[in-house]
Amino acid sequence: MKIKAALIALVACLPLPATCAEWPDGPVEVVVPYAAGGAADVMGRVFMDAIGTRLGHTFILKNVGGAGGLLGARQVARAAPDGRTLVISGAASHVLAPLMSRDANLDPVKEFTHIAYFGGAPTVLAVHPSTGIKTMAEFLAYMRNAKESVGYVSPGVGTAGHMTASYLAEAEKINLVHVPHKGGGTAILDVVAGHVKVASMNWSTAREHVSAGALTAIAITSGARIPGFPDLPTFRELGYADLVMATWYGLSAPAGTPADVVAKLNSAAIASLGDARVKRQLELEAAEPKSFTPQEFSDFVAGELKRWGPLAARLRDAN
Fold this sequence. Notes:
By secondary structure, the chain is α/β, with parallel strands linked by helices. Helix 6 (about 160-170) links the parallel strand 6 (about 150-155) and strand 7 (about 175-180). It has 2 domains: about 30-120 and about 250-319, D-Maltodextrin-Binding Protein, domain 2, CATH 3.40.190.150; about 125-240, 3-Layer(aba) Sandwich (D-Maltodextrin-Binding Protein, domain 2). The chain contains 11 helices and 10 strands. Helix 2 (about 40-55) runs antiparallel to helix 10 (about 275-285) and helix 4 packs parallel to helix 11 (about 295-319). The chain has helices spanning about 1-15, 40-55, 70-75, 90-100, 135-145, 160-170, 185-190, 205-210, 260-270, 275-285, 295-319; strands at about 30, 60-65, 85-90, 110-120, 125, 150-155, 175-180, 200, 215-220, 245-255. About 45% of the residues lie in helices and about 20% in strands.
């Protein structure tokens, strides 16, 4: 009887290997739905390294950029829910891009199991120093006096950078032309080189360039001024009350991923918030972490879709 029971237990593990106690017992791919070098890539790698240390496993990160994060997100949504494929989810790929796209073909709530929230970083509006702009008033004057259309870079269509600049353009009736990239890593190079004069992107991507004087920061979407940059005003204090938002990142998987796998990953992610490297990265990005349960994270994503839906619809219909 003991042998029979052992055989039954062994066979029970075969169809659903991710539910067995030894998970992860093989390669686990984590899709980063943006190009390498951007905020999602950096945040994802720091967190997955810390999570991997706690689980005794090395996760394989793969960059799949495009369509504001939709390409990578869709790839994971269609993957088997066995714990072998995860995604660095975020405000862009799982909220803004699906809302902005007419053919997103993605349901951010029904098609994913949302595992853990990492943190949310603000978006900054910045300009190339050659413009001579230092304040929002000067930026608006520059836009209104421009004889040609003025372009701005963002990490992609439907990203927080896109939404922030579009909101400002709509509120001030200025002609900002979107120059989307496949991630912040390439977008920042375009504006630092002066090919495009304006950037609307994650603070973490722009911060070092602002510190070095290669970019001039005009306003930021954080709720309060961020440490180390006391002269950088928030959009809210400049009169844009609705522009308090974060480009948040987290960890998600295909819907139906086994509950025990989700629980292990959630526990490891929350524990990782105490790691020195993780804390430092969150500090650099001015990002606020949250110890969400998987259900709380799922509810948060649903709330974000409801919050940004009306603005996204107006922007989508205007294009």
